Amino acid sequence: MPRLPGVGQKDAVRVFQKLGYRVVRESVHLIMSNGERRLVIPRHDPINAITMGAIARDAGLTPQQYSSQTDMAKLRQAGFIVSAPRKNPLIRDSVNTVNAAILDGSGRRRLFVHPECSVLLKSLEQQCYDDHGQPDKASDLDHPIDALRYCVWQTRNFAHAELGKAVRGIRLY
Questions:
Q1: What domains lie within the chain, and their CATH numbers?
Q2: Contact 59, 19 (CB under 8 A)
Q3: pLDDT tens across 107-146, in order?
Q4: Strand-pair partners of 23
C-alpha cells in the first residue's frame, strides 16, 4: 500500500514561522510557540501527512487553511484507488445490509469481526435506535458502526446482490 506523502521538517518550521511561531527549544523535537500555543515538531524527515495535519490543527488551522486539495485528491495522488459514492445510502438500507452480512435469512454469516475489534463489538451490542428507527447519536457508539456500514455497503451490497451470484464474506481485523 502506498504511503501518504509527508512534509519536510525544515519546510514545516518555515511555514509556522511565517504564521508567527518561533523556535523556543530544540531537543529530540523542536518546540515552537506564538505566545499562546505550543507546537511540537518531530525531527523526522519527512513528517508524515497525518502527523502534520495534527500539528496544523494544534496551531489552530482548519484543513481548508493548510490544504489546497481535498482529502480524496491527496489519496489519489498518493496512489490509492478511491471509490466513493456521490451520496451516502439511506441508513435503513445500509443497516439492513450489515444485518444481512452478519446473518442472513438462510443462516449464512458473511461478516466476521475479529475479537480484538472491541470497540466495534461493543457498539454492535449496545447501539440503540430512536422511535423513527434511526441510530441514537447521543452516545458515541454510532461512529464505529457508521464506518462498518459504509465499508460493507461499498464492498458488498448483500441486500441488492443478484440472485445466483456468489458473494464472498468480509473479515475485519
A1: 9-77 (3.30.920.30), 91-172 (no CATH)
A2: yes
A3: 988 888 899 999 999 988 998 888 887 887 777 788 888 8
A4: 32
Please write the tens of the pLDDT for every residue from 47-60.
Answer: 887 888 888 888 88
Cross-strand bridge partners of residue 32: 23, 39
Q: Find cell 458473511 and name the residue.
A: 110
Distance between CA atoms of residues 118 and 136, nearest Å: 20
Phi then psi for residue 25, to 5 deg, are -160, 140
State how beta strands 111-113 and 170-172 pair.
parallel
Q: What is d(CA 11, CA 8) in angstroms, rounded to the nearest whole number?
A: 5
Q: Rounded to an integer, what is the distance from CA 128 to the centroid of its chain? A: 23
